[in-house]
Amino acid sequence: MTSGFQALTEKEKETLRLLVDGHDAKSMARHLGLSVHTVNERLRDARRKMAVSSSREAARKLRAIEQRDPEYRGDRLSGDAFAVADRDESAAPVDASRMVRRIGWVFGGIVMSLSLALFALASWSGPTDAPAASQSAAQPAASPETVVVETARVWLTLVDREDWNGSWNATGQAFKALNTSDLWAEVSRSVRPPLGAVLSREAAGEEAVPAPPYGYRMVKFRTRFANKANAVETLSLVREGGVWRVVGYTID
User: Fold this and answer.
1) pTM for this model (two decimals)
2) Could you give the angle at the alpha carbon of 197 between the alpha carbons of 231 and 169, nearest 5°?
3) Do residues 220 and 204 touch, judged by C-beta distance below 8 A?
4) What are the strands, taking DSSP E only, across 52-132?
């Protein structure tokens, strides 16, 4: 079974993971921006390589191998962990979820990525506190943060509180399709608490990254942790269902 697993391409593994997460061929095709025919071809090739008679059995075996032997998660826990290989279906439309899967999650050199959307994000776009009344008239007031920056900041508070389930729920579908909340919690517990409490966090910039079809936003914060000074936190966000969702996070 291991040799069959090793023969699978990353595209075939991706399709099997979606299948075991409850997708059917049509929903996988929509999610990946492919035709149903292409999805079925991937499943057929995966069945052959795994030497099983059904696609669901191949998907269950893949999940069992990856949960039992983390070293086999070549696209999840080593090198460019959780990064997805480039797709070569030139005829298929490109969507934002396919583009952002290549963005990794890094906590102190460990890369990670992140299926229920946290509806509360829709109400987390309020402005920052007004400047104090005693502020000098000669000193200009700080500009209010944008919705994107505020959404990123609120998500970071979930991570700061070690609310792994809440932070996972608040991410975009691109990560949720590839990872479980348990995996996110497991990796986060091993790398976030050692950084210690947040002593300060300042927004350092927001950049619109032009990528088809809609692009995404990259937000940076300069952060001082109790056990890591002068850190730079970088978050990538895409717009889903009218609200911004975090789809990438790195700490340098």
Assistant:
1) 0.47
2) 85
3) yes
4) 105-107, 110-112
